[in-house]
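just leaving the lab so this will be short. what follows is a protein written twice so to speak, once as letters and once as C-alpha cells for the fold. can you read through it and tell me how you think this chain folds. thanks a lot i owe you, the record is right below.

___
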Amino acid sequence: MYLISGPSNINLIWRNSDTFTPKAIQLMGMRNILKLKPNGASFCESDDSGRGPRPHPKSNVEPENRIWFHTHDTSARYLSGLHLNSLSSYFQYHLKNRIGALSLDNQWSETTDLYSLIFDIIFPTQIEALFGTSFLSLNPNFASDFREFHRGLTYLLRGYPRWLIPKTWRARERCLEDIKKWHIESQKQQDGKILSGEERYISYGSDYIRARKHMHAKMKLLDADAIASSELGVIWAANSNIITAIAWFIIELVKDPALLLKVRAETAFSVASDPDSLLHININKLSTQPFVQSAYAETLRLRTYNLLVTTSEHADFKFRDWIFPKDQMVAISSHTAHMDAGVWNTGSNCANHPLDTFWAERFLNSPSNPLDGPLKAEYASRRKLGQAAKSQDRFQDDTHTRDFPTNNASISPNSPRFSLAGLSGIWVPFGGGYSLCPGRHLAKEEILLSVAMLTAVIEFDFIQDDSLWYRLRGLLGKMIRDFKPDMRYFGMGVLPPNEVRIRYKKSKLE
C-alpha cells in the first residue's frame, strides 16, 4: 500500500479520478461486512467502467450494469436539491416526534453512554426518513440488531469467522432478513395500486430509496440477497458517521458554555413559526450561520479518521517520479491531512489552538483580520499565488470547498464568515474527486438540525466521577473531559467516543 499526504499530492490523485477507483476496498467491505454473496460480488467486480459519467474506454460493461456509476449518480441526484429538501423535512418531522416522546422534566436523568442516547434518537429517525414509517413497524427489533452488528464492524472487516463473533453474525443475518422482508411487503402494497405521495413514502420510503429500487430492477443479475446487502450498506453509511459526529458536537458544546450560547443564538434566529410545542428550524437559515458551520467543520476535522483507499484499475499510473502499479492500493489518511501543521492555522501566540484540540472558530474568516481563517496566512498566500490554470480543476470548486453564503440581514458585513475555500486536499472528511461523498449535503443538514434541536430542548451535563483515579487526574491538572475516540474503528470515518457519562433534563429554554 502507498500512503499519500500533502494537498498537492492528494489533489493530483483526485484530478485523476477517471483512473483511480475505490472499488477494491469497497468490495472488501461489501463481502466481509455486508455479507455480499459470490453472485453479487462477481457482478460488482465485473464492472470496470468506473464511477464517472463516461465509462472507461477499456470497459465493455453494458450501460444498465454500470453499478458503481449508477449507485453514485443516484445518490448524488437524490441527496441534493429538491430531494434533499424533502428528506430534511422528513428527518426533522420524525426527530421532533422522537424528542417529544422522551420523558423529559426538570429532574436530571443519567446515562452511562452519551453515544447510546444519541443512537436511540437518531437511528430510528434516519430509518423513518429514508425508508418510511412501515420499516420499523414491520421490523421492531431492527435498531437493536443493527447496533449489535455495528459493534462488530472491525472484526467483520478483518474476516473473523462466525464462531469467533457469533452475536455479530446473527445480528447481521437478522438485519438482512428484515430488509428483504420489507422489500417484499412494500412491493405488495404497491402492486396494482395508485398510491398518493404520502402513501408511497409510508410504504416505500423516500424518493432516494425508490430510485435505488428502480436502479436495481434494471440489473437483472442482482438477486434479493445482493440488494439487501446493498441496502444494509446505505443504512450503515447514513447513520454511522452522522450519529458519532452529533455526539462529538454535543460533547464540545457541553464543555464550552460560551459556544453553546452562540449555537443557541443562531438556532433561535433559524426557528420558523410552528404551532407545535417543539421548535421548527429553517434548515436553509441554520446552514448559513457562521459559528454553527465552523463548529461542524471543526468536529469533522478533529474526529474523522478515514482511510481513503483507491487503486488504478486498468494500468500503471505515473505519479510524479514514481510508478503506482496497476491494482496496488493507494491510501489517503484524513487524520494526517487534518493534522498538517504546515497548512492549518493554530491562532496567535497569545491565543494558540493546537491541531489536536477543538477550536470552534477555526473556519471563520474575519474581514478585519487577514490572519484569521483555517489556513496559515503564509500558506494561504503561497496557495493563492500558485493557483495557475492547471490547478483550477473540476474538483477544486465543489460545493464543500467554496464560500458558504451567509445570506441573511442579521449578519453584519464586518462579522466573521465561515469558509472552506482553498481547502481542497486539506479538509477531506468526505473524500474527493468522483468519489466525493454524495451524501455530504444531507449529512451536514442532519447534523446541524440534530445538534440544534437537541441542545435547544435538552440540557446536558457531564456526570462527575468520584473515583480516586478521577481525583488524582484533577490534582495532576489532567482534564477528565478530554474524551478520546474509540481507535478500534480507525480508518472507518468519524470514530465514536469512548464511554461518556452524561446527565440530561428538559432545557429551561424549551
